[in-house]
Design goal:
Elements lengths: L1 E3 L24 E2 L14 E2 L20 E3 L3 E3 L86 E3 L10
């Protein structure tokens, strides 16, 4: 089984030219995780949606949702970016994801733009926003959305997750 959870959404901003939202975290992800599945058994598969971008007004991004293969494997979504002055980045969902970038303070107390969304093994975080505007959507699978910058914009949404199942039969020699 390979897959990822949903990426976290980037934070929105207030009507203040000098503030940026934090990027959402990248989702937990795995490549070729081996599981023992029983033939004829029914398994529940859940694909995690990416977190919504934080709405204008300085709201945090939504957390990405987990993807799972029944109770045998759960891949957590990335955390949403936050907005407090220069916004904080969301945490990664797990070892396969990267943290969202903080919107960093620079001279004069202003922020250096919206934070970049965190990457996952299968996707990239939304691009950094240096000029006033909405955050960018995460790409691929499990990438976090970037934070908005200045003037009351929404953050970017996180990318959805996925689950890929590959079946390998056993060969018996006799």
């Amino acid at each position: 089984v390979s897959g990822s959870g949903g990426g976290g959404g980037g934070a929105g901003t207030t009507n203040d030219f000098s503030r940026g939202g934090g990027g959402g975290g990248g989702a937990d992800a795995v490549i070729s995780h081996q599981l023992l599945a029983e033939p004829g058994e029914v398994y529940t598969i859940t694909v995690g949606a990416g977190g919504a971008g934080g709405t204008a007004g300085g709201n945090p991004g939504g957390d990405g949702n987990p993807s799972s293969f029944d109770s045998l494997l759960t891949l957590n979504g990335g955390k949403g970016g936050v907005r407090s002055g220069c916004g904080g980045g969301g945490d990664a969902g797990g070892p396969g994801g990267g943290n969202g970038e903080h919107s960093k303070a620079v001279a004069g107390g202003n922020c250096n733009g919206g934070g970049i969304g965190g990457d996952s093994i299968f996707g990239n975080g939304g691009k950094k926003r240096y000029f006033s505007g909405a955050g960018g959507r995460g790409s691929g699978y499990g990438g976090g959305g970037s934070g908005a910058y200045a003037n009351n914009f929404a953050g970017g949404a996180g990318a959805d997750g996925f689950i890929l199942i590959e079946w390998y039969g056993l060969e018996f020699l006799g």
